[in-house]
Structures are given as structure tokens and as C-alpha cells.
Amino acid sequence: MSTRELERVEVIGRVGTGQLKLVDAAAMLRVSYRQAKRLWRRYRQLGRNGLKHGNAGRPSNRGKPMKLRRRVLNLVHKKYSGSEAERFGPTLAAEHLAEEDGIVVDHETLRRWMLAEHLWSRQRKRKKHGKRRGRKEHFGELVQLDGSFHDWLEERGPRGCLMNMVDDATSHTEARMGKEETIWAAVGVLRSWIEKYGVPRALYTDWKNVYIRPATPAEQLRGEVPVTQFGRMCQKLGIRIIAASSPQAKGRVERNHGTHQDRLIKKMRRKGIATYEGANEYLKNEYLPAHNRRFSRPPAKPEDYHGRKLTARELRQILCLETERAISNDWVIRHKNRYLQLQPRHRRYGPTKSKALVCEWEDARMETYYRGERIEFMEIPEPVRKPAPPLAPTARVVVVRKVRKDHPWRRSYKKMKSWLPYRGIATPLVEIRTSASP
Q1: Using CA atoms, how far apart are residues 126 and 246, in angstroms rounded to an integer?
Q2: DSSP state, 60?
């Protein structure tokens, strides 16, 4: 019997012994007087068992058939079980049961069944965070960007990094997979976001050198703010970069990593994906649309804060690496140990100690600009420098010290006492010699 039923047995029993009136029992049990009369009647007819619920010990009328339960658990054990890192959670397993097997089971029902069969275990609760920052109110107002290194392809392919962008207001996600968290990896996922939604107002990143770098001593003396190549691209796009001081500060994208590490790995395992190209194709066509439909939410305010969508030509001019190189008098610049011969249209005058701007793209294409105009170039071999003649040996001074035989350094301790009054007279002789260095 439940605690409530045991309380009713005690109070109604006191009514039977005459200790309480029925109206007082109704007040103590917090029921109406008519309900108290019904309880008292059942107690007189059946005793304490009359106050027990009639469905106690019986299966629920709304429960699933035992045959369906065994079938579902067999499918979970066969297809969605495994080690702690491989097994599907109740929510993900319920989705795949509905998609692949045509069995619709609520995830909480499946959770109870899996717990009873030891196919799932409750996760340890984490400590509650001290203070949570509220979401932004507009779509595109702030987008969190971060890379997640993980064994995404398991043993079928190499380890990789998933570049992940999550909108702070809606949890809308865009992702691309690559080898490392490089400038081009960040540029690739940013380009995909801009092509779909437009230019966001701000990016929330960490303190990696891809996004933020410390100032050099020369920049500190000049009072300049250091800017990375990715930061320069964002400045041209009008995007502000905000560096988070801790992983908890950008917790939305960090929690999104955990969702991908659970769901994306298992889904790619089912598809047999083993390359970065296949993973990006699956992300673009299947995974991300379904993920955004399920996990994204409407913003607090309907206004979209994204800028306009740039054309492919505009993005190409902005999303490139720019480096300044000094021009020699013969119009040659050196870039990455390569010698580039510039070919200006008018070579009447020299470059007057100017600099050329070298632009590079991800596909290894390169262009050079001089005073804002594009200038052609051709690569030339490294010039052969004549070796410098060896230096002649130089004379050096060698100091040789000779000590006289009667000097105190050569006397014993007993004979030194007689010499003490005259210690200022004896001095060592110094001879200067010159010798040629080898």
C-alpha cells in the first residue's frame, strides 16, 4: 500500500474505535464528507484492503503488449547497443526505430525498458553552473564558432575536426569537417553560413591564433591592435570577433559538440562514411537539415540581424590571405622562399622602395597588387650568390706570466714569514707575445 493509503487506514480505523468523528476524519484526510462516508463504508465491508487501490498489482490498461516490448528490446540490443561510446541513447534509438523499423515508441517508455534490461545507464549529474547568460534576441546577432577534435570517422578514416557554427538566438547550426582547425577551415564554414543566411553581426570564438593573437613587442610600442588573417577578413565583412574567456562562456556551441559526438558518429557509422568529403556531403544534404528542424527554436524577436548575402565574386575578393612584400630595385619580391618577378606595364621608373600585396586562396592561386592595381608576375629561380672569400687570420695578443723563483708563491708557509715585510717589492713579470690564430 502507498503512504496515502496507509494514512487513510489509520484515520478511518480511529473512526471505527470511536476516537474520531467522520467529519473530523474528512478534514484530516483533506477529502469531502461524502468521500469520507464512502471510505468508511468500504472499510466496514472489506477492512483495510478496502482502502487499497483496485488496480494495484495489475498491468496498466494503457501499457504496451509484452510481445512488442520484447521485439523492441531485441532490435535495440542487436542494432543500437554496444560499448558506452557506441550505444544509442533512448531518444536517438526511438527515432531510428520509427524511421528504419516502423515502430513508434515514446523515448521515455523506451528509457524505462532499456534501464530494466541494463541497456542504458543514468548519466552522472553535473554540477550546476553559477550563472547562465541569456540568449540573444535576434537571429544573426551573435554566432558561436568553435572546432571539435574527435574520432568522428572511428576506425574507418582519420581523426578530424568539425568546424561548428551555432546561432545564439535560435541554435541553428552549420558545420563542416576537415583535418585541422585552420584559417581555411574557419573560412569554409563561414562562407557556407554567409551564402545561406547572410553576414552575421558578431562571432563568439576562443583565443586560438586563428581568431585572436597577442601583440608583438613592435606592435605594443606602436600601440597597434594585432589582427590575424581571419580577423582581417571579418573586419572587411563587418563582423566583430568576441573572444570567450572560458569554455563555459560559449557553452551553447560546446553542448552542440556533445550532441554531434553522440548522434553524428552513429549516423555516419550506419551510412559507412569514411572520408571528409563524404561526411561534408552527408552534413549538407541530410544531417544538418534534420538537426536544425529538431533542435532549432524561434528567436525572441522576429527581426533578422544578418547582412546581405554576398556574391561569390565578392566573397572571393575578401576571403583570401593578404601579405605585404618589399619590392627590390629590379621588381622582384620574395614570398615563401619563392622569387617572383613582377611585370609592370610601365617600367620607366623603379618601385621606389614600395611594397606589393600578395593575395592567396585556398586552391593555391595567387595574385599580386601594386598601388591598388593588379600586376602580373612570373616565378624565377633563386639567384646564385658567390660565396664570400675566407677571412685572413688575425693576430691576437697572448699574455704569458712568469713568476720568479724566489716569489712567495713558490715558497713554503714557514719561509713566507721572513718575506712578509717585503711583499710589495716582488712582482711577477709579464711578457707580451703575438701569435697568429689558426
Answers
A1: 17
A2: -
Residue 109 grid cell: 517508455
- Helix, strand, coil percentages (3-state) for the chain, rounded to 5, are 40, 20, 40
* Rounded Cα–Cα distance for residues 326 and 355 (Å): 4
Q: Tell me the percentage of the chain whose pLDDT exceeds 90.
A: 48
Residue with cell 484492503: 49
Q: Are 178 and 188 contacting, i.e. CB atoms less than 8 angstroms apart?
A: yes
- Distances 380 to 92, 263, 331, 333, 383 between C-alpha atoms, Å: 59, 52, 12, 10, 8
pLDDT band at 427; cut points 50, 70, 90: very low
Give residues with Cβ within 8 angstroms of 10, minimum separation 6.
none
Q: How much is the average pLDDT of 272-282?
A: 94
Task: State yes or no: pLDDT of 232 exceeds 90.
Answer: yes
Do 288 and 317 meet the contact criterion of CB atoms below 8 Å apart?
no
Where do the domains of the chain lie?
3-51, 143-313, 321-380, 395-436
Element containing residue 12 per DSSP (H, E): helix 3-16
**Which set of grid coordinates corresponds to residue 154?**
572511428
Superfamily of domain 143-313, CATH level 4: Ribonuclease H-like superfamily/Ribonuclease H (3.30.420.10)
pLDDT bucket at 415, cuts 50 / 70 / 90:
low
Q: How far is CA 312 from the centre of its chain?
A: 28
> What does the alpha-carbon distance between residue 244 and residue 218 come to, in Å, rounded to a whole number?
26
DSSP 49: G
Count of CA atoms in the C-beta half-sphere (13 A) of 409: 7
Which residue, 92, 90, 112, 89, is CA-closest to 100?
Answer: 92
- Contacts made by residues 341-346, CB under 8 angstroms, sequence distance 24+: 341/377, 341/378, 341/379, 341/380, 342/368, 342/370, 342/375, 342/376, 342/377, 343/375, 343/376, 343/377, 343/378, 344/370, 344/375
- 32 exposed, middle or buried (CB, 10 Å; 0-12, 13-18, 19+)? exposed
| Beta bridge pairs of residue 397 | 434
What is the C-alpha to C-alpha distance for residues 206 and 236, in angstroms, rounded to an integer?
20
| Per-residue exposure over 299-318, b if at least 16 CB sit within 10 Å of its own CB, e if not | beeeeebbbeebeeeebeeb
